[in-house]
Amino acid sequence: MADLEIKNLHVNINGNEILKGINLEVNKGEIIALMGPNGSGKSTLANILMGNPDYEITKGKIIFKGKDITNMDATERAKLGLFLSFQYPSEIPGVSVANFLRTALNARRKEKISVLDFKKLLEEKMLLLNMKESFAGRYLNEGFSGGEKKKNEILQMAVLEPEIAILDETDSGTDVDALKIISNGINTLKNKTGMGVILITHYSRILQYLNPDRVIVIIDGRIAKEGSSNLANEIEAEGYGKHIETYA
Q1: What's the rounded Cα separation, in Å, for the pair 55 and 51?
Q2: φ/ψ of residue 108, rounded to 5
Q3: CATH label of the domain that carries residue 46
Q4: Which of 16-25, 159-168, 236-245 has the lowest mean pLDDT?
Q5: How far is CA 30 from CA 43, 139, 147, 181, in A?
């Protein structure tokens, strides 16, 4: 049994069927890259895995760690060890990065972490991502650059140490230096904790640093093709055209 199992998943939003029978298994310790044209259903899959109530599951199941989480809310899924890095992180004025992260971590723990222990933990994780100590005092995502927002999402992941992380276009809006730092953080956490990763991306450049175990192409709400990292390079060079034709 896989750590995360998606079985014949059909999903609607606003009366439109977006996912049309997705079957996917993900285990801890592996990186799965999800690619596909805009509107193919990648972000819908990310949202439904984390329990976004705006999306309706009409058929199928999601099993995590042997538990049926299909109807479980997002908070309970997070406590079990799922994590979603947002494509467009929200700004939260008045709430510092440090306070937000400590609150999120305590929500997952049976015993609350002390202020001193959390400070040490946060400093360790920020060092991993080459982030200045002053960053922790800034309001969450307020005035952040694209790269800073994405690094902050990875910082959240590093602090929470999920079992399966879903990263929705973590590479968008980042320069080469930020991309290398983010990728190093993902690889380090994966190697340290055995975390599994579902990475949604349009480009092969981040895969040069992460080396996915599988690349999966989603087209029109269905899995159209699966392969190695070479498949990502092929798509980068040739686009999705022939895969759409093959799938059709």
Answers
A1: 8
A2: -95, -15
A3: 3.40.50.300
A4: 236-245
A5: 20, 33, 25, 19
Instruction: Quote the domain boundaries for residue 236.
Output: 4-247
Binning the chain into helix, strand and coil, the percentages to the nearest 5 are 40, 30, 30
Q: Which tens digits make up the pLDDT trace of 28-85?
A: 999 999 999 989 999 999 999 999 999 999 999 999 999 999 999 999 999 999 999 9
Q: How many CB atoms lie within 10 A of CB 29?
A: 15
Q: How far apart are CA 176 and CA 99, in angstroms?
A: 29
Amino acid at 168: D
Question: What local confidence, expressed as pLDDT, does residue 244 receive?
Answer: 56
Number of domains in the chain: 1
Residue where the block lists tokens 């609350």: 112
Question: Tokens 């993902």 appear where?
Answer: 186
Report pTM.
0.90
Average pLDDT, the chain: 91
